[in-house]
Amino acid sequence: MVKRRLNKLPDELIVTILSKLPTTFKESVATRLISKRHEVPWNLAQDVTLEDNDDDESLTSFVCGSLLSEDAPVLERLHLKLTRNHSASAIDFLVQTAVNRNVRKLRFHLFGRTLELPNSLRTCTTLKSLILRDVSIEVVPIGLRLPSLRSLHLFSVKFSGGKSVPSLLRICRHLEYLVINQTIYDVDGDTGEFAPLWFCLPSLKSLHLCSVIFSGNNSITRLLRSCPVLDSLAINQTKCDYEMFEVVLPSIKTLHLLSVDFSGDESVTKILESCKALEDLVITRTSYDNVWLFNITVPTLKGLSINNVKVKRADAPGFVINAPALERLNVKDTVSDFLMFGYLPEVTTANIEVSCDQSENFVGSLAFMQHLSLCSPTSKTPYTSGTVFFFLEHLELCTCSARWAKLLVSILNDAPRLQSIKLKLKCSAGFKRPMELWTEPTVVPECLLKHLEILEWREYEGTEQEMKLAAYILANATCLKMATFSTRSGDICTELNKLSRVSEICQLVFE
């Protein structure tokens, strides 16, 4: 059927159409239509934000443009940002206009006002994403279904009138991505652990819970039971009880525990045990998480990231990590007093910044690394004697510790394939402790004789001990191609230029 533009229709028919419009828009739309009957139709956008400002220009432009156009493009996104009260029929009319243009993303921001989910969504087969922000929902129309919806975001949504989050989820059976933020999650009826599920989300792959208050027994357990193929779970600033994971989650591969209020050490253990296929874990600690020791024992884990930089706690020593399949490791912990790694044969890249002064507990476990970035107070014995960093090729070492040079010399002796060294003040403390005396190796390390090609030294100050170390490396690194020093002093650059270089191809660079 060939579409005809509304401004070409007979006047009698236009009057009939206008009579069907919600009262909110009759006068403004009618005026707009009359002014446009002999003009080129409004150029339709594919991403539209409508705000109810004083002249309602954006609202009427959108409605009129959609009605007047004979070839309106697909509407990618409609954002209704309404600060005033509007009738359900008025909002439904706007949504119907978007549905007629095959809208794919729909967003409501009502600043706390009530939203009745539009009935016009019943006929929408193109809607993929729905975002509700700061709205109140009292009614979920009986029979309403959103079969094409794949992504749902609930930000500060308040349910009343006996409705709750499950009331909405049950009409979105094909969801793949769900975010619940600053919203109360409640369930009605039988809430026992093995009570029949009120709804099922058989396609949900990603779930993000942020500042969610769970009301009712086993409400979070029942939510997780309804997601049989869940792949990614993020819990942020939400209380997690020991009982919350009394359900096995065999499909979860990615888990984020961000500023979570646990009930104790055992709740962490229970969560990790329930994720039988976990591959990536991210942990951010807070001063109120109620955990004394994080015991991360996950045989399938491949990536681990820890962030613990909040206010120091006297009752939380730190982390024990046992993950033999781990490949990627990032730890930033300026709070804990304890860190211990188990056997980590698969880790090739690690970035570690810690404040605990027990380097002998974990540095030796990093022997399989190819890329190592390390910031740690160094013990008198940096790591267990006999440790060999056979695969280490790239080393970045923070210069904040008083014994950092001793740690460097130890690694030089035990890393025969080391190719590049970067020395810089990288920790969050932002200051150096006075560098202690260090002793030259009795035998030149193999890496200096055969492999080291790059030396980069940031915040170089030219102290006696620093100059001695620089001179040693330049005098013994036979394959060195480039040595870069970052310094503000021209005199220091002059002194470095005077140092002997065994490598004939070595270039000195000053920044």
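The above is record 1. Record 2 follows with the same two-line structure.
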Amino acid sequence: MATNYSNHPTVFLPPIGRLSSQSTEGMSNAIAKLRTLYWPPPLPAEITLPKRTILTKIHDSAAPDSGYASAEDDEDDEGITHVTITADGDAEYLEVLRADTLEHEFAVRWTTGFISRSDPWIESAPCEDERTARAQLLDDATALLSAFIGDETPDNDSEEDEEGAEPAMVRVFTFPTTLEGKPIEVHLHDAPMLEDDHTSVGLQSWGSCIRFGKRICAAPAHFSLPPPHRPRDRPLRILELGAGTGLLSILAAKLLRDEERTPTIIATDFHPDVLANLSINVCANLPPPLLSSSPSTTPPAVQVHPLDWESPTTAPPLDEPFDVILAADVIYHPQHASWIRGCVEALLRRPTPADPSGGVFWMFNAVRQVGRHEGLEGSVPRAFDGSPPSGEGKGKEGMGLRILEMEEAGKEVGVGRADECGYRLFRIGWVPVGVEST
């Protein structure tokens, strides 16, 4: 049977890069086809297939053997057998297609991309009915992405594995804040980490992220949300590295909901499963604004985008520097600190006459004194030593990234893992090359 490539997600899903030119009907058909491919509607418990009868005498050597007839078949007439033909070939092909890792990962990335880029597409709808329909497609895609995540993780009823991994769950956090109004509430979907893959740590909310979130909500201005010298001619730009479940980006969006200019907030991570789970959390906590919503009460959207620290990109939407960069518990390998430094050098706003300090990078890391991650927090001061970025000389005008402030924080009861004994908060910024730390 010839392969029907029209059923492959890599073929039938429209390019997300050209989402603005896609029709509502076209995207609806794509999402519906994707859902049907991976979650086909159940068949009835009992189905009756039409029986196709081939009148072939069993012992007639002149007749070709179809492979279905045998002497043990029931006979309605002597020497005659009735043969039932089924479409097992199509079913087997679809099962193979669903098991295709490349197609499955492409489908997850496509769905994640649609969710993260759908806001302008929804806003550009030609009429209110179309806008409502597109908003519904965003909800459908979010549900589909949630199903993909559920399909890739163990059942909630499964026992804990040898590593002590927990089943998937939704955790609710409440953060008191100095801003007017109620405390900020965030719902986060935590999924089990993948075995032998340290890049999947972002599937769970870690203690350092929770502690850092509390600190930010208690004093947003101290953490430059917004910065004291906020830009007047452009929106504030905020980046989260190793966003994981997205807590810091979601909090930043909620804290800055009253900004005159809607900030640009981008949450980044590396692992495809982490990005998919991140998109679920962003959509759950920051739903698209309703048609009647007031801009002053609608939190800015958070964009979800992949970023490889080892080979950072400055392609859109990372093509403009950021005023604030946030990171929590991002050091799990001896090279991570140096890779992160390379990212920050490329993405943090440099000092200017109007803003002599430039952007600021806040990092909150766990201190671990046991286990395979013991002592890795010590790699941060070595990486951010004020030396010039790679490829830049040590001239008088050179600028490097240095730790401007470091603060120790104790462990909080009920927060964090057993191997965490405390935390360190770093404020990192630009300094002239050769300036010693204070």
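Residues 3 and 254 are 49 Å apart (CA to CA).
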